[in-house]
Every structure is written in structure tokens, then in C-alpha cells.
Amino acid sequence: MGKIIAIANQKGGVGKTTTSINLSASLGVLEKKTLLIDADPQGNSTSGFGLDLENPKGDLYTCITSYLEALGNPNAHIIKPQNVIIPTSIPNLSILPANINLVGAELEFINFDERESILKNILSPLKAEYDYILIDCSPSLGLITVNALVAADSVIIPVQTEFFALEGLGKLINTIKIIQSRLNPSLTVEGILMTMYNGQLRLCNQVVAEVRKHFHNTVFDTIIHRNTKLSEAPSFGKPIILYDEESKGTINYINLAQEIIKKNNGN
Amino acid sequence: MGKIIAIANQKGGVGKTTTSINLSASLGVLEKKTLLIDADPQGNSTSGFGLDLENPKGDLYTCITSYLEALGNPNAHIIKPQNVIIPTSIPNLSILPANINLVGAELEFINFDERESILKNILSPLKAEYDYILIDCSPSLGLITVNALVAADSVIIPVQTEFFALEGLGKLINTIKIIQSRLNPSLTVEGILMTMYNGQLRLCNQVVAEVRKHFHNTVFDTIIHRNTKLSEAPSFGKPIILYDEESKGTINYINLAQEIIKKNNGN
Ligand SMILES: Nc1ncnc2c1ncn2[C@@H]1O[C@H](COP(=O)(O)OP(=O)(O)OP(=O)(O)O)[C@@H](O)[C@H]1O
Ligand SMILES: Nc1ncnc2c1ncn2[C@@H]1O[C@H](COP(=O)(O)OP(=O)(O)OP(=O)(O)O)[C@@H](O)[C@H]1O
Ligand SMILES: [Mg+2]
Ligand SMILES: [Mg+2]
Questions:
Q1: Which end of chain B is more exposed for a tag (fewer CB within 10 A), N or C?
Q2: B173 — contact with chain A (CB < 8 Å)?
Q3: In whole angstroms, what is the distance from residue A246 CA to residue A249 CA?
Q4: Of ligand 1's atoms, which has the minimum distance to the CA of residue A9?
């Protein structure tokens, strides 16, 4: 049975998309059947794989609006995720794309009773087909991100090794606790992932020490180092493993994938 | 008459808060009476000045809810921005703080007719008291950011010199055009500000060249270089000019302030 993992942090630019793209690619390479869902209207996970933001088959927004329509009209033609999922350049990895029209989804959700569980209902038929389903979230705690946290079995929290990202972590953990108590009791924290780490900077070392002090073994052993190749790769539409196999970024994300697989008993 | 400038970009982590803090501090030092408004529930501009996120006098959320209440009940006691504005360590600079409860404002706005102009109405009495009013926006295009763009005379768009930030710029310019046509015809683009620039990286130079090619003289001459001191300063609760007067970050932001003052005919 597949595991759904949301990749979330309301702080912007902490490495959510970079982690979504390269962790999903690493899981694919390690022979885990993986689906990456882009739940950010910016569509960075989609374009990071070199895919066109205007996907003729549709995207996450198409699936959401079609599901909502079918709630009201049983005869409506439903567009399922299976109809819009696209294969990527990585074996075992496909993607459910997004683009700017996803902004409209938040307004459509608002009027439905179970507005926090819409994504959960759309994704649950897919769980049996994949080992891992990753959801790349936007830098906000709006209704789409809440939907992702309700659909998820666990959440990965990327934390840039900088002051503002550290400061927001406590508030995010509180928000996750609220979601656990009210909407998704089985949600766990898969781990806190330190990103853009530079061992020569005092600030980076202070932030890592602070996070490990407060959150102990919730913090992944794997740390993602700052590495220019990671920021170059999306401009070529490739995950790091295809852009520069030898780079530190490739090694970091393969290690992360192995750590997660091990933690989930080899699944 | 003061000028209201929003600092906005839905892409996360591009330097909105770093620009808000250090540009407002530079304007203060250059003897312009300046107000910084924190319109991001993360409260990074507030904590970046070392201020407590729980301000006993209140914050932007207090002003908004009090204004909305008074719309419905003329006898209600109004808490005005003047009641909650706090001085900072910089001469001529004060701040209207924010914290996590600002998340609630979006839900409160939704039911009001002129929900996009609430911030504009709250701020217009302040314009005569300041030379510049800067608004630090969150990484989203939700109702609070739309309110900031409606209240503003112009907008500064920080763009990190990386692929994803470049990609989102076109969409943001489109959104600004929509706001200009429907909600705020007098909104202009004060400038596009390149941030976290490292002249030795090919990607940074490609992004700068690409932005200048498309947006010509809308791009500020001043470029903000990547500088570790800029990311250390907020952990000491200080703008860069107080943390390290000699640093490149201080020089970059003073130059930016001077460029903006010159562009606005010395005001
Ligand atoms: N380890 C790293 N080393 C170098 N650059 C990185 C690293 N991780 C991410 N980046 C770059 O930093 C920027 C921010 O990362 P990314 O876009 O993945 O963050 P995000 O949290 O998804 O942002 P948003 O909040 O906008 O969704 C990007 O330009 C990315 O290429
Ligand atoms: N020129 C710079 N050099 C080095 N670090 C920088 C620079 N500008 C910003 N930073 C650091 O990069 C991170 C992101 O910047 P900042 O928080 O200002 O972006 P933001 O756009 O306000 O983010 P958000 O989208 O979450 O509001 C912060 O940790 C900040 O300290
Ligand atoms: Mg992202
Ligand atoms: Mg910010």
C-alpha cells in the first residue's frame, strides 16, 4: 500500500520543490513506483521536469473541478488523476502536473462541506498503484496545503539553515498538531530536512544545532548541502541525478531516499 | 505626500523581507520619514527588527478587525494604525507589526463588498505623515497581498537570480496588469530588483541578462549581492546597517534607497 508524503513549509524558498523533484527521482531510481503531485500554482515541480505548464490532458485543477462537479451531478464525466498523469524521464516516476489555474481551486473548495478532504478522496484510489506519492506544496497554509496534509500519511518539513526558516518551524509544528487533532489523526512527521547547508557558515551550524536540540530524532540524518548544480538543474528540465550524477546534490538526495525507505522497513 | 510601495512576489524566499527591512532602514537613515508595514503572518519583518511578535498594543490584524467592526457598528471603538505603530532602532523609521493571527484576516475580508480596498482605506490617513510606506507581502497572491497592491502607489518585485524566480516573473507581471485594469489603475512598477546575485555563477548572469532583455529600464541599476551578513543580521534583530556598516549588503541597500529617492525627484 503506497505512502502519501506531503512536502510542506509556509516559509518560502526553503527547498520544497527541489526536495520534491530530487527525492521523487531518487525513489524512482531505487525502483520504488513513485508519483509526484504538484500542488503549487507556480507549477515549479512540473517545469522542473521540463514539462509544459499547459498540459493538454489536464492537471490537478482539472481533477479537482471534475470531482466537485460529479459531487453535484452523478452523470458528469469525471476526469481522474489516471487520465492526466504523465511519465517523466526517470524510470518508475510519473507526475500529476499543476499550473496557475490551480489558484482558482481554493475558491471552489470553500463552499463544500468536506472541503479539507477533497484531495484525500481524489488520491485514495491511487495509493494501491504506487509505493510513494509525494505532494509539493506552495508556501502557504491555505486550503490546498491543508488538503495535502489531510490526504498525507506523513509530512517532510524542509528547513533552510537560516534564521527566518528556523523561526517559522515552531509555528508550523503547531499547525501540524492542530491538523492531527482535528482533521487527520494518523498524520506523522516523516522528518525535518535541513537544506542549503554550508558547513563553513556559523549561522548554518547554529541552526542545525538548534533544530537537533529541539526536535532530536525527528531530524533526518541526511543534510542537503548548498550546491549550485541543484539550482542549475531545473533550468535544463532535469532532476539533479540526470544533470550531474557525480554532484553532492545527487548523493544527498539518494541518501535521503535510502533513509526514508529504511525507515519504512524497506517498502 | 507619502508614497506607498508594496514589496511583492508570490515566489517564496526571493528577498521580500530582507528588502523591506533594509530598504526601509536605508530610507530612514537618509532622513526620509518611513513606515514599514508587515503584511505577512510569518511576521519576519517584525522579528527582523528584534520586536516581539506578541505586541501588547496590537498589530495589523487588530487594525483590520477593528476597521471591519466599525463598518457595521458606528459606535465601536476603532484601533487605528497610529495606536499600534512602534518606533525602531533606526531614526525616522517605525513599524506596524504582524503575527500569525493575520492568517485570520483573509477569512474576515471575504464577506465585505470592497474586500480588496480595506487596507487602502486603513492606510490613506497615514500617507500625509510619511515620505515612504513600505508593505512586506507574504509569498502568495491571496487577499492580503491583493489589498497591499490596491493600497500601493507602486510595487517593488524582488527576483532571486535563479531559474524558478525568473520563471514566475512573467506571471506576476500579468497579475499586476490585472490589478491595474480592475482595482488600482494608478499602480506602477517601482522596479524589478535582482537579489542574491553572485557574479561568479553562470546562472546568476544568465538570469540578470534575461530580465534586463525583457524588462529593460524597469530593472533597478542596483543589484543586491549574496552576502552572508544579510542573512545573519535578522538573528541579531538588526537591519544590516546596524549589524555591519561596512558590508556589501549595507552599500547595496543604501544605493537602492538613493536610486528610488532620485527616481521620485528627491522626495
Ligand atoms: N541545496 C540547494 N543548493 C543550492 N540551491 C538550492 C538548493 N535547494 C534549493 N535551491 C534553490 O533555491 C531556490 C529555492 O528553492 P525551491 O524553489 O526548491 O524552494 P521552495 O520551498 O519550493 O520555494 P517556494 O516557497 O516558492 O515553493 C531555488 O532557486 C532552488 O533552485
Ligand atoms: N542578498 C542576500 N544574501 C544572502 N542571504 C540573503 C539575501 N537576501 C535574503 N537572504 C536570506 O535568504 C532567505 C530568504 O530571504 P527572505 O526571507 O527575505 O525572502 P522572502 O521573499 O521574504 O521569503 P518569504 O517568501 O518566505 O516571505 C532569508 O534567510 C534571508 O536571510
Ligand atoms: Mg516550491
Ligand atoms: Mg518574507
A1: N
A2: no
A3: 8
A4: 21
